[in-house]
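quick q for whoever's on today - can somebody do inverse folding on this one?? i tried earlier but teh output was garbage lol. tokens:
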């Protein structure tokens, strides 16, 4: 008899393992809460994505693509960038890879829909989905978005849903509702990472609403880690540095975006599928010369993040056109796009719950990953109440936020989020319409 355990290449699904005091593997679980409190456990660890395990072999890395190997510190000289080795994809290759990834994920024997944020990634997925749904004779599918009244995502998604012809559903929430679900969100997401919790809160409401209509949704998750979709990439010092940063944040997907996506949906018995993270699509996009992914800081809309991807899907396809204000709108992380000031309101509420004295003494209480703000302190306290002595299990970003670990400095983001949320506004919002 033996044991075989493995995890997918990106960490789309979570997996943990527990080790006894004598170093033996004693259990595996997809949630931390299933292992906490078991007898004779000394440590719990995240199972590395792209690996499998047996008692005979230990951990073995089975997913190790060349686009990741050559960019890793200490890589062998023989490792060559794919775009220098005759493997750079054409525009047709890139489009076809994503198209096939979407089609594969439409195989389902349950009702399904899509998360439509109004960002370019979910709009592209929607464009491809509707093409295949029509070919397969599937009636209009439901789409779901979350936001606050007149928020950037809500208004963009509404316009795109009209273009797609979906049965569209909107879940509006308030900053007060966000505060009220913090405990539930931390319990289910099993981390104290503030940046991640902020983005998980809208996802909670979105998944809750979608679960009342369907059992599975397709999302645009993962595109930013392939196409350099975050604002701080505007300060990338070179194409090579940009690619190394993509490799870094891609390797952390399982403890960041994918953790949020899986936990918030599965908390409501909803499955989320992520076509951008199809293995063939990842190979195609990450074999593209990273110079094609560079942004021009201060440039016009057509020089912003993911411009190459946007141009691929700019033409009308199968009678569906992504409206211009959506096609070229700025990337918004979910906690930002749902509304422009709800995060600051939430942070103010959380600040009221933590005293100055408590924050000053945080290092004595939590020497590992010490909270730096009252918001972080509050999340850490909630996490500790559910998962005592597990502070080393969650993996956090270097510097406390995604951009904090990049090779370059950026003034676009801090530990508390996007510095200037007004950058996210667009003409589809009524207060900015001309």
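ok took a stab at it. sequence:
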């Amino acid at each position: 008899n033996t044991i075989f355990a493995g995890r997918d290449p990106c960490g789309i699904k979570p997996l943990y393992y527990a080790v006894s005091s004598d170093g033996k593997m004693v259990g595996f679980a997809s949630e931390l809460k299933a292992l906490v409190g078991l007898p004779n456990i000394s440590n719990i660890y995240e199972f590395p994505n792209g690996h499998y395990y047996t008692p005979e072999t230990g951990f073995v890395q089975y997913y190790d693509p060349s686009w990741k190997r050559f960019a890793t510190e200490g890589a062998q000289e023989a490792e060559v960038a794919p775009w220098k080795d005759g493997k750079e994809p054409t525009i047709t290759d890139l489009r076809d890879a994503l198209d096939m990834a979407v089609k594969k994920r439409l195989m389902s024997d349950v009702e399904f829909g899509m998360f439509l944020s109004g960002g370019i990634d979910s709009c592209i997925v929607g464009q491809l989905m509707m093409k295949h749904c029509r070919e397969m004779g599937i009636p209009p599918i439901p789409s779901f978005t979350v936001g606050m009244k007149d928020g950037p995502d809500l208004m963009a998604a509404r316009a795109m849903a009209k273009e797609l012809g979906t049965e569209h559903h909107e879940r509006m929430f308030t900053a007060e509702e966000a505060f009220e679900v913090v405990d539930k969100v931390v319990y289910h997401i099993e981390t104290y990472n503030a940046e991640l919790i902020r983005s998980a809160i809208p996802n909670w409401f979105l998944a809750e609403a979608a679960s009342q209509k369907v059992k599975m949704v397709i999302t645009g998750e993962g595109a930013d880690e392939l196409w350099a979709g975050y604002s701080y990439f505007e300060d990338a010092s070179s194409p090579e540095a940009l690619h190394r940063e993509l490799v870094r944040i891609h390797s952390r997907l399982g403890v960041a975006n994918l953790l949020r996506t899986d936990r918030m949906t599965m908390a409501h018995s909803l499955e989320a599928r992520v076509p951008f993270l199809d293995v063939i699509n990842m190979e195609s996009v990450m074999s593209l010369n990273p110079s094609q992914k560079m942004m021009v800081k201060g440039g016009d809309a057509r020089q912003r993040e993911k411009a190459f991807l946007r141009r691929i899907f700019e033409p009308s396809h199968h009678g569906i056109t992504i409206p211009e204000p959506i096609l070229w709108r700025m990337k918004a992380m979910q906690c930002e796009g749902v509304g422009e000031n709800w995060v600051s309101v939430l942070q103010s509420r959380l600040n009221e719950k933590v005293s100055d004295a408590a924050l000053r003494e945080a290092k004595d209480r939590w020497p590992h990953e010490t909270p730096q703000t009252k918001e972080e302190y509050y999340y850490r306290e909630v996490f500790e109440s559910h998962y005592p002595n597990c502070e080393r299990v969650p993996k956090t970003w270097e510097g406390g936020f995604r951009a904090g670990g990049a090779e370059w400095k950026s003034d676009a983001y801090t530990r508390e989020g996007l510095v200037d949320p007004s950058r996210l506004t667009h003409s589809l919002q009524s207060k900015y319409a001309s």
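fwiw The longest strand covers residues 41-46. also The CA atoms of residues 28 and 228 lie 33 Å apart. so keep that in mind when u check it
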